[in-house]
Design brief:
By secondary structure, the protein is mostly loops. It has no helix or strand.
């Protein structure tokens, strides 16, 4: 019964494939617009 518990694997490193904050399209069409941070953004 104890064999079923496996060690959890190491957390995956973030790269362009699994990072929610990257946008693949920006590679080809960079966003040159000035930043417009909302309230509290610095």
């Amino acid at each position: 019964m104890e064999d079923k518990k496996k060690k959890t694997s190491e957390p995956a490193e973030k790269d362009a494939g699994n990072n929610q904050w990257t946008n693949n399209n920006l590679k080809y069409y960079p966003d040159k617009r000035p930043r417009q941070d909302g309230p509290g953004g610095n």
